[in-house]
């Protein structure tokens, strides 16, 4: 299910595998219909927060993945509907209200760093760096750029990547060059 149109896997299966580890550790000896799912999810949430190894957003993402897994299992009647209801009742960790640390916002690279790195890069990499800076495309879109994906018809060229981050939503991605 978690595959791109070209057949390659997304990162979602790895995220689900990581999320399942604390679930297996906390409930390995219990049947699904005997678990207090709300208490279990809250326990896992707090355990992940108390380790100090994961950011609050990562923990919230893992709990959301757990809910997705429980929704899938509920539809197939592997777990009772109460499991999903219990997991959905657990609130996300709020900023500043849990032991989990907060991540710093991602900031753009300083222009001086770009100039320094660009001066030591080869011509192809240097062109890629400056292209990404000026058009704002994602690195993955840049490395798959081909002339057949670029429309030269207008004054402003348009690049439509053959695959991109939101293609599964049937969204069109246009990068103006």
Radius of gyration: 22 Å
> Biggest β-sheet, characterized?
3 strands, antiparallel
Count of individual helical segments = 7
Task: Give the low-pLDDT segments.
Answer: none
Q: Per the principal axes of the C-alpha atoms, what is the gross shape?
A: elongated
Assembly status? single chain
Structural class: mainly alpha
Main β-sheet, spatial strand arrangement: 1-2-3
Approximate strand percentage: under 5%
Count of DSSP E strands?
A: 3
**What share of the residues lie within helices?**
40-55%
* Nearest-integer average pLDDT: 85
Taking the alpha carbons of the first and last residues, their distance comes to: 34 Å
Name the helix and strand elements from N-terminus to C-terminus, one letter apiece.
HHHHHHHEEE
In brief:
The chain starts with 11 loop residues before the first helix and ends with a strand. Helices cover 49% and strands 3% of the residues. The chain has 177 residues and is mainly alpha-helical.
